[in-house]
Design goal:
Number of helices: 2
CATH topology: Alpha-Beta Plaits
CATH architecture: 2-Layer Sandwich
Pfam families: Asp23
Largest sheet: 5 strands, mixed
Radius of gyration: 15 Å
Number of strands: 7
Helix content: 25-40%
Family: Belongs to the asp23 family.
Number of domains: 1
Order of helices and strands: EEHEEEEHE
Length: 123
């Protein structure tokens, strides 16, 4: 039997549902300490259909898509000018996946990063 909603767990004591907001909070908090990430916000490229899908949730730069017993995450980041973007993105993907899977046991299929802005930081 295929598990439809990866956010719902059943045990002998009853059913537990982890909200989309919890996953989004974990994703945001897990990249807070990465040097070069200024904010997690903004929109995502893509169609209007995803905005109205019951399997998709979006808030404050994080989008969750639920499919086939796992989740796919999309993060929209603003980074500091001069930051090596590929290294930053790889670290963010790893931290988000590890944090969500360790705290919720929900499988994370992938973490897609959309760098939507770059800012020069005046010293």
């Amino acid at each position: 039997m295929k598990k439809e909603d990866p956010m719902i767990f059943c045990s002998e004591q009853g059913k537990v549902k982890i909200s989309d907001e919890i996953i989004m909070t974990i994703a945001r908090k897990s990249v807070n300490d990465i040097e070069g990430i200024l904010s997690i916000s903004g929109g995502f490229p893509g169609g209007v259909q995803a905005m109205f899908s019951k399997n998709t949730a979006t808030k404050d730069g994080v989008r969750i898509e639920k499919a086939d017993g796992s989740i796919h995450l999309n993060l929209s980041l603003e980074v500091a000018y001069g930051t090596p973007i590929p290294k930053l993105v790889e670290e963010a993907q790893k931290k988000v996946k590890e944090a969500i899977e360790s705290m919720t046991e929900i499988p994370v299929e992938n973490v897609n990063i959309f760098v939507h802005d770059i800012k020069v930081i005046e010293e």
